[in-house]
Amino acid sequence: MTIFSKIIAGEIPSYKVAEDDLFYAFLDINPVAKGHTLVVPKQEVDYIFDQSDAMLSAHTVFAKRVASAIKKAIPCNRVGVAVMGLEVPHAHIHLIPLNSEGDMDFRKEHLKLSPEEMQEIAASIAANFE
Ligand code: AMP
């Protein structure tokens, strides 16, 4: 079971942003920007392109809805999209509010946000999710 499956099962806490039958979105615990969100399929699959065409499409469309909520909740020029999966073998799309190219640099020092701030960010994105 991956750490993300444990999060989806509620065994590990997360700052939930959105959910439906197939997907779960929550804040990245080590964010590169305020509002950095991960969108994962509930079904455990390692690599994003291992998903069926239908699941990949649905994953992307769900991420689109989450990105729209992020854009409304967090002032930014764009919501960047990234897929790496070098750390956690459970397909996930990173959505990252961007104002400049450097905001998507995963090597720079990540933000240290308090649990209260994380909770507040998650709630404001969730409130804008449609
Ligand atoms: P990668 O697999 O390379 O895309 O990186 C995995 C991402 O998952 C990193 O950005 C981590 O900060 C994030 N991450 C790992 N564990 C958790 C967790 N328990 N809750 C939220 N995000 C996590």
What does this structure look like?
- This protein has 130 residues and is of the alpha+beta class.
- It has a single domain, classed as HIT family, subunit A (2-Layer Sandwich).
- The protein has 3 helices and 5 strands; from the N terminus they run H-E-E-E-H-E-E-H.
- It has helices at residues 3-8, 53-73, 115-127; strands at residues 16-19, 23-27, 37-41, 78-82, 93-98.
- It has a 5-stranded antiparallel beta sheet with strand order 1-2-3-5-4.
- Helix 2 (53-73) crosses helix 3.
- The longest helix is centred in the middle third of the chain and has 21 residues, at 53-73.
- The termini are far apart.
- The structure holds adenosine monophosphate.
- Adenosine monophosphate is lined by residues 3, 12, 14, 28-30, 38, 84-88, 92.
- What is the mean pLDDT? 97
Give the proportion of residues in helices.
25-40%
Q: Low-confidence parts, pLDDT < 50 over ≥5 residues? A: none
The CATH topology? HIT family, subunit A
Structural class: alpha+beta
**Top-tier CATH class:** Alpha Beta
| Helix-strand sequence | HEEEHEEH
Q: Which descriptor suits the 3D outline?
A: globular
The end-to-end span amounts to 30 Å
Number of discrete helical segments: 3
- How many structural domains does the protein architecture include? 1
Main β-sheet, spatial strand arrangement: 1-2-3-5-4
Total strands = 5
Radius of gyration equals 14 Å
Major pleated sheet = 5 strands, antiparallel
Instruction: Identify the CATH homologous superfamily.
Output: HIT-like
Brief digest:
This protein has 130 residues and is of the alpha+beta class.
